[in-house]
Amino acid sequence: MRTTRVGHRGTGPGAITPDGCAVELYTRLLAGDEPDVVAAAAPRPGASVLELGCGVGRVTHPLVERGFAVTAVDESPEMLERVRGARTVLSSIEELELGERFDVVLLGSFLVNTGDLAVRAGLLATCLRHVARDGVVLVQREAEGFYDEIPREQAMRDGVGRMSITSSEEIEPGLRANQVDYVFPDARWTQFFRTRHLPDAAFEQALAEAGLALDSYLTPDHVWARVLPKR
């Protein structure tokens, strides 16, 4: 039985995952720059990619189309049912034990900003456990100042829906309780979740504690990082 994560819940039509994500909503979301970042940072064309927290395949599918061999992991069977063209694994990220190594381990969707320190340690341990000796870990994290302007609304990439970060409350130093609303002409979803502020120094310290090391920031805003196993 899947357990809802503390501080996480969601409302709206369709199945809701333990971290509050609505499956039907995610079928409507389009990929951003994630496939471009992975393609540019991968050590070779057609590299093996372990995608942690793949959801419905928003990023998986563009990677498969580019020729990457993707193993897509998610704890939601309803999410995995939507994934096509990739090997799928039903598991929480923290408990994943494939006994394999990959050219690229992808930890996207700002998962590293989880509010639960034990979960974050588990995520990074899984990255280390599955990255090849000459492979890379690609981490996507929240930009500095992401919650400075609240409430904040923006159009979705599909040009139809709108996303609003409705509220963000600091419930203890560095830990925030957030509400995000997604509004479409025919449906509305709300997600409540917790995140932890992770500036560069704290991020790099968390990597070091997990046996990983920053190689470089891949974007000017430091949202994307290329990480290597310590040697």
Descriptive key words:
6 helices, about 35% strand, globular, five-stranded antiparallel β-sheet, Rossmann fold, seven-stranded mixed β-sheet, about 230 residues
Task: Explain the overall architecture.
By secondary structure, this protein is of the alpha/beta class. The protein has a domain at 29-144 and 197-229: Rossmann fold (3-Layer(aba) Sandwich). The protein contains 6 helices and 12 strands. It has helices at residues 23-28, 34-41, 60-65, 77-80, 117-130, 200-209, and strands at residues 9-11, 48-52, 69-74, 87-90, 102-107, 131-140, 152-155, 162-172, 175-184, 187-196, 212-217, 224-229. It has a 7-stranded mixed sheet with strand order 4-3-2-5-6-12-11, with helices on both faces. The chain has a 5-stranded antiparallel sheet with strand order 1-10-9-8-7, with no helix packed on it. Strand 11 (212-217) and strand 12 (224-229) form a beta hairpin. The longest helix is centred in the middle third of the chain and has 14 residues, at 117-130.
Low-confidence stretches: none
Our measurement of the CA-to-CA distance between the termini, rounded to an integer number of angstroms, reads 39 Å
CATH topology of the domain at 29-144 and 197-229: Rossmann fold
Query: Could you state the CATH homologous superfamily of the domain at 29-144 and 197-229?
Result: Vaccinia Virus protein VP39
- How would a textbook summarize the main sheet? 7 strands, mixed
Number of helices: 6
CATH architecture of the domain at 29-144 and 197-229: 3-Layer(aba) Sandwich
Bin the strand percentage. 35-45%
Relative helix content = 10-25%
Would you list the SSEs in sequence order as H and E?
EHHEHEHEEHEEEEEHEE
User: Rounded to an integer, what's the Rg over CA atoms?
Assistant: 17 Å
Mean pLDDT: 94
**Total strand count, please?**
12
Strands of the widest sheet, in order across it, are 4-3-2-5-6-12-11
Globally, the shape reads globular
> Regarding CATH, which class of the domain at 29-144 and 197-229?
Alpha Beta
Structural class: alpha/beta
